[in-house]
Amino acid sequence: MTTHHSSSQATSGGAAAPVPPDPAAGRAVHATDRAHVFHSWSAQGQIDPPAIAGAEGSSFWDYEGKRYLDFTSGLVFTNIGYAHPKVVAAIQEQAAKMCTFAPAFAIEARSEAARLIAERTPGDLDKIFFTNGGADAVEHAIRMARVHTGRPKVLSAYRSYHGGTEQAINLTGDPRRWASDTGTAGVVHFHAPHLYRTQFYAQTEEQECERALAHLEQTLVYEGPHTVAAVILETIPGTAGIMMPPPGYLAGVRALCDKYGLVFVLDEVMAGFGRTGTWFAADLYDAVPDLMTFAKGVNSGYVPLGGVAICEKIAATFENRPYPGGLTYSGHPLACGAAVATLQVMAEEGIVEHAAHLGENVIGPALRDMAARHPSIGEVRGTGVFWALDLVRDQETREPLVPYNATGADNAPMADFAAAAKRGGLWPFVNMNRTHVVPPCTITEAELKEGLTVLDEALTAADAHTTAGPGGAGA
Question: What pTM did the predictor assign?
Answer without folding.
Answer: 0.94
